Amino acid sequence: YPTWKRTLARRARESQVKRFCKAQAIQRRLEEIEVTFRELEQQGIKLEKLLRDENESPADQQTQWTNQLLYLVQKKNNLMTEESDLMIAVQELKLEEQQCQLDQKLRSYMNKQATLKTPEDEKAEQEILKQLLAVVNKRNVLIDMQEEKRLSEL
């Protein structure tokens, strides 16, 4: 087993572990966002009830409640933006994993000597190459989406 093959296998495992850790961190953050959404929703419901029920309360008190409600809406919008960014990151991780797997399959076919390749091997190699190009194009679309989103936020 040549050294370069061991090195490639080790790097593939390392990148897989990194993707797994990143996916776990994203999942934890998505769960935190979900909990925060529920808390903000409850606070918003309380403020709305206060605004509707307390018509006789002083104007400055109603203004304060309205400002708090607007702050909650802004916070919720920020969380929704973060959640959509995380969902894009999840898609990107999935595509990265797919690309890595296809890369390894393609390498195994390409490392085979040309004289030993069967027509089925060559056909499979071409199919994997097509799949790999499709995955790369999907990743490119995601990156373009992120860039457009970032520019529109500016």
Detailed description of the structure:
The chain is an all-alpha fold. The mean pLDDT is 90. The protein has helices spanning 3-53, 59-110, 119-153. The chain contains 3 helices and no strands. Helices cover 90% and strands 0% of the residues. It has one domain (3-153).
- Largest pleated sheet: none
Number of helices: 3
**Mean residue pLDDT:** 90
Number of strands: 0
Number of structural units classed as domains: 1
Strand fraction band? under 5%
Note the main attributes of this structure.
90% helix; MICA1 monooxygenase; mainly alpha; monooxygenase; 0% strand; membrane; 154 residues; 3 helices; single chain
